[in-house]
Design a protein that fits this description.
mainly alpha, 67% helix
């Protein structure tokens, strides 16, 4: 679960919106109260936080959690949905989402943001909407909490954990559309905002790893294969050090793919040839240990190293 430093969240938002402390609405907190909140000298109640955020044009009652609910079982459902989507069980995920919609107030911005994202993510995965349509939905959902028409630079805006996931999804859409310059700009903003200490280290480090993995993927797509390989080798170390093993298969496959692309441009050394083979093997076996969620790993193994696949069966 993600935890946030609300004093830093408030300060980041106020500065991103260009609002001075003395400019808050008359019915909102005083400038001195805002100062004390930002410096961590004032305990922030839900009522004070709501008044403060509304003064900045943000319709939000709390920053903690991805839903507005006091029921733990409803929050638990979001973890179940995440697992179902990860295991490509879209049908059961849809049923869970529909069940959750019946219990939640969709007029609340946070609930609407989460439910709409889950629904559109599934629709995109099933091919019911185009990449361009999904891109527009994600951009709309990422701007939901700024209700007064401010133009906010994402690199200075404290994204919560679900919004980080939306940025990752938007990155994948831009990659599919080959909008590499936009993808690069998006990842720079994500990497920049994650340098701020507004969320707990565990989640901050996780999304720093994700941002780095996405960056290496982008480098490979624009032909910078040597740079991508160097970054992915570092990503492997970070995954192992932080015990984020869920991304190991992706990083190993990305390494294999970059070596494969290099082979079309230059002759690899014997060590590089062996590293290419080992990376694909490791990606395949790690994926198999997680239920074989990526069939292309096995397909690549059959295509490039058929004897290795026979030995594994």
């Amino acid at each position: 679960m993600a935890y946030y430093n609300l004093s830093k969240v408030v300060k980041m938002r106020r500065k991103a919106l260009g609002v001075k402390r003395e400019e808050f609405d008359a019915e909102g907190p005083t400038g001195m109260t805002v100062y004390r909140i930002e410096e961590g000298k004032h305990k922030t109640s839900e009522r004070t936080y709501r008044s403060l955020t509304r003064s900045m044009g943000i319709e939000e009652s709390t920053y903690q959690g991805i839903l507005k609910t006091k029921k733990l079982n409803e929050l638990q459902v979001t973890y179940e949905i995440a697992y179902l989507l990860w295991s490509k069980n879209d049908k059961n995920a849809e049923q869970k989402i529909e069940s959750l919609k019946e219990k939640l107030d969709e007029k609340d911005m946070r609930n609407y943001q989460y439910l709409r994202y889950m629904e559109e993510r599934i629709r995109y995965g099933k091919g019911e909407i185009t990449a361009e349509e999904y891109e527009k939905v994600l951009e709309e959902l990422l701007q939901l909490r700024v209700t007064k028409g401010y133009s906010v630079d994402m690199s200075s805006w404290p994204l919560h954990i679900k919004e980080c996931q939306m940025v990752s999804a938007l990155n994948n859409v831009l990659k599919k559309e080959r909008k590499y310059e936009q993808q690069k700009e998006l990842l720079i903003k994500l990497k920049t905002v994650l340098e701020h200490d507004y969320m707990n280290n565990e989640n901050k480090e996780l999304y720093q790893i994700i941002a780095s993995v996405l960056w290496a993927d982008m480098l490979g797509n624009i032909g910078a294969h040597r740079e991508a390989i160097k970054m992915d080798e570092e990503n492997l170390k970070q995954c192992e050090e932080k015990k984020e093993f869920r991304y190991l298969a992706d990083v190993y496959y990305d390494l294999f793919w970059n070596y494969l692309m290099l082979k079309k441009q230059e002759t690899l050394s014997a060590e590089e040839e062996e590293r290419c083979r080992q990376c694909l093997l490791r990606a395949y076996y790690i994926d198999q240990a997680h239920g074989g969620l990526h069939p292309r790993y096995g397909q690549r193994l059959q295509e490039c190293y058929p004897e290795e696949l026979k030995q594994s069966l």
